[in-house]
Amino acid sequence: MIHKTKRYLVDVLGLNIDVDLWSENRRLPVYLQDSYKFQQTTLHNLPCLLMIALGEQEQTPAVIRKHAENIRDRWEGEVIYVRRNITAYNRHRLIQHKVSFIVPEKQLYLPLLGIDLREHFRRIRSEREQLSPSSQAVVINVLLDHNNHKYAPRELADKLGYSTMALTRVFDELEFAGIATTSRQGRKRFIEFPVDKRHLWETAGKFLRDPVKKRVYVNRMSSQIPNVVAGLTALSRMSMLSAPDRMTYAISGKAWKTIKEEDGLKQLPPIESDAIELEIWHYNPVTFAINGGVDPFSLYLSLRDSNDERIQIALEEMMEKIKW
DNA sequence: GTCTAAATTCCATGTTTGGT
DNA sequence: ACCAAACATGGAATTTAGAC
Is the CB of residue A207 inside 7 Å of nucleic acid strand C? Predict the structure, then answer.
């Protein structure tokens, strides 16, 4: 219901009306003509007139109510005030004044329609520009795999510890992003990546995310923490960068959850110099671990946003050594 | 047809996150 | 601090299409 309404509003408010027929035929006072754009519509079969605020400056609620009443005299139906943003204070006052209003994609207050949802619609997140963790895990797996570039869902599911339906979604996602192509043979489905891994790395690059979901600091090492170093500890092993004082390990979210419950590690503030840094990953770092460290691709992604020049140089150095 | 394996859809669940 | 949306993924049921 809420979703339906939301979609509806987005559709209605997304319309661009070139000629404002309603107000032209009404010879509205100039101050109304100048301040608003009017648009007719219906909501749940009730005629509505959207009174869309044009000015940057937000009017006071009392003024808005006057305007709305003025309009209501010339229109049989609901008059709805529309503004891109309304301050919290004015929103309260509008509700007190019983002025219907819409903040596109965020808020809706329509008492006369029996809708008193002061539902604040969350900003619609922009088009997904990052792959889901499972999709990224597949890409990393392919980048590290020198023997193959075409896979079936089942084998990837087994290898990476996901279900086959997770792989169904992964296939769709990677195809949609233009990173890979999928095909079918009978009921089997396959996904095929560029043979040139370098090319794959480049096309996938902008869709890949920092694998680190969260960083925590603990007082001691635990046998349950996988022996997979990450962060600067890992980078120092793969470049000329000197080793940092503090060890950094990577762990999957799932593993961290059980360790936290079972092993009673103490979490410390990041300042403690003898703390161990744990990176909690979106996918399982152990799957791709090489020689007790995380894979270079994930490592690169975890540090590429650093603005420390030495780190950037070390990353470059590491990438140059990769045998594609 | 019926059986079966693989994939997919629908729904459920635990977690994270953004906005008051 | 709280709440609901969004996210990530899995379980069960359902569909698909090859094999007999």
Answer: no
Q: Are A155 and A141 in contact (CB under 8 A)?
A: no
CATH annotation of A126-207: 1.10.10.10
Question: Among residues A209, A232, A235, A233, which one has the least CA distance to residue A316?
Answer: A235
Distance from CA(A189) to C1'(B6), angstroms, rounded: 9
pTM for this structure? 0.64
CB A67 within 8 A of CB A97: no
Residue A262 CA to nucleotide B9 C1', Å? 37
A217 touches strand C (CB under 7 A): no
Note the pLDDT tens digit of each residue in A30-71.
777 777 777 777 666 667 777 777 766 667 777 778 877 777
CA to C1' distance (Å), from A285 to B5: 31
Asked whether residue A96's C-beta has any atom of DNA/RNA strand B within 7 A, the reply is no
Strands A181-185 and A36-43: unpaired
CB A263 within 8 A of CB A276: no
- Measured CA distances, A211 to A134, A227, A310 (Å): 11, 17, 21
DSSP string, A106-135: TEEEBGGGTB-----PPPPPPS--S--HHH
Q: Is the CB of A118 under 7 A from strand B?
A: no
DSSP code, position A191: E
- Distance of alpha carbon A134 from alpha carbon A174, whole angstroms: 11
Tens of pLDDT, residues A258-294: 887 666 677 776 666 778 888 989 999 999 999 999 9
Nearest nt to A91, CA vs C1'?
Answer: B20
Q: How far, rounded to the nearest angstrom, does the alpha carbon of residue A79 sit from its chain's CA centroid?
A: 35
Residue A281: beta bridge partners? A212, A252
